[in-house]
Specification:
This protein is of the alpha/beta class. 43% of the residues lie in helices and 14% in strands. The termini are far apart.
């Protein structure tokens, strides 16, 4: 509905609004109010109604529209981009856990209402928040660790191992001193792929490969994957010392490591 150049989404038109958040109305309203919602907007029919298009203020960028000069609402941008480049329905949508409500919930409501197709996204993968020294890492606080800076101090495979050591849905406390341990894990992996074994009793790591695939299929359980990969690397190193043929095992581990994005350099 349109009021004074502003376009609002009426949550009453969507019985499933906020379903992904699994919260009651009062909880949803409290969270929305903390994240930019204006519950006292006199133009709103419901305090949780959200802006699709906002009338432009004199000191803001603005564009022409059927409703006058203005700018897009916060939530509409993602729906516009995904529909333009990926179509009306998408397979996987990611984002931080703090975006479940209101941002992603509003994105679902406006996208499904516009297209008439459900679901807007078949799978949602919400990652935990990254913390540094007891505070949420965020642009607004300025307590960021840039990848380029971390790469000056650590091997890229050590950083990747560290980041994958926690499940993606869990909050992650970034500690610079912890990376030392993962430097060793990454070095062990590279060593396992560079050793030369013998010619007898080929090393079989098919069980480990199956365990990795099962863990990946279990909501991307990367901590388990890395534990199995580390065990397999140790088996190869020990097998080579015993004169066993480790070439086939190395090929399996290399493929799994590359799947996870390790450079192996």
């Amino acid at each position: 509905y349109v009021v004074d150049g502003n376009v609002y989404f009426s949550i009453q038109t969507d019985p499933d609004f906020g379903r992904m958040a699994r919260m009651g109305y009062s909880e949803l309203l409290a969270i929305a109010n903390q994240r930019g919602n204006n519950p006292h907007d006199p133009n709103k029919r419901d305090p949780l109604d959200f802006v699709l298009w906002q009338r432009g203020n004199p000191d803001e960028p603005k564009w022409e529209s059927p409703w006058g000069l203005g700018r897009p609402g916060w939530h509409i941008e993602c729906s516009a981009m995904s529909q333009r480049y990926l179509g009306e329905q998408i397979d996987i949508h990611g984002g931080g856990a703090d975006l479940i409500f209101p941002h992603h919930s509003c994105e679902i409501a406006q996208s499904e209402s516009a297209t008439g197709k459900r679901p807007f996204a078949r799978f949602w993968m919400h990652v935990g928040l990254v913390w540094l020294d007891g505070e949420k890492m965020s642009k607004s606080l300025g307590n960021l660790v840039f990848a380029r800076d971390a790469l000056r101090e650590h091997h890229p495979d050590a950083i990747r191992w560290y980041l994958l050591s926690e499940h993606y849905r869990e909050d992650f406390d970034y500690r610079r001193d912890a990376l030392v341990r993962y430097e060793q894990y990454a070095a062990d992996l590279r060593q396992a792929l560079s050793v030369t074994g013998g010619s007898h009793s080929p090393l079989d790591v098919s069980r480990g490969r199956n365990d990795v695939i099962a863990a990946m299929n279990d909501d991307l359980d990367t901590p388990t994957v890395l534990a199995v990969l580390h065990t397999m690397a140790g088996m190869i190193i020990d097998g080579a010392k015993e004169g066993r043929d480790v070439s086939a095992a190395q090929a399996v581990v290399r493929d799994l490591a590359l799947m996870l994005g390790f450079t192996l350099r």
